[in-house]
Amino acid sequence: MSNIRSLCLALIYGAIVGIAAGIIFVSIFPQIVVFTREIPFSDVPLIFVRNCLAVTLITFGGVANCLIEVRVWRRTKLSNWLNRSVDPWYKLIKRFSSSFEKLGKFYRSLYLGLFAFPIMSIFVIIFLVGFYFTIFVSKLGIDGLFIFAKSLPYIFLEMSVYFYGAYLALGIGTKLEPYVEKKNLKLFVEEGRKSLKNVRVWKALLVLYILLFISAILEQTFSSL
Domain range spanning residue 125? Predict the structure, then answer.
């Protein structure tokens, strides 16, 4: 339930920040011009592949990043840069997590990779949706609202897929979290590699790919109305 709560908060905050950014952007650049176009059916495979890559990255990007990080951490220059990159996050998150505060910088970074990556992915996606929604409505008025309204079917389907992909990622992170807290790097790497080959997760992704194919067709259809 905490995973779902975190993702819902990412959706809410992402939408709020996206709308606020859209309002500020239009006020600073009032001359901005927006336009729409019909998507040819030949673009459906490209849309499908793009969205499939996105949900796969959301699901496995965090753990893959951590496994790469384990390999490069021993290099002095990279480890110093990674240490500095973790510090700002640590100052923020240590207020909410006592277990996180006890970890060294390296393991804090792994912790962030597992959990921050999928949550921030959802935040960024819904931020972009809110940002473009605000610009379209601000510049096109009722027409912009209508354009967004007819896009809702495939936006909702795509967001549901991305949301579930992030949920899968947080599930992987939860299983690997004990190895981070115990600083058991060997088991972390072994289990992390297994998670990338987890048949159950890939079966779930297969269903998500099918939904994304339907979403790509809906995007082409509704954009042409």
Answer: 2-25+58-223
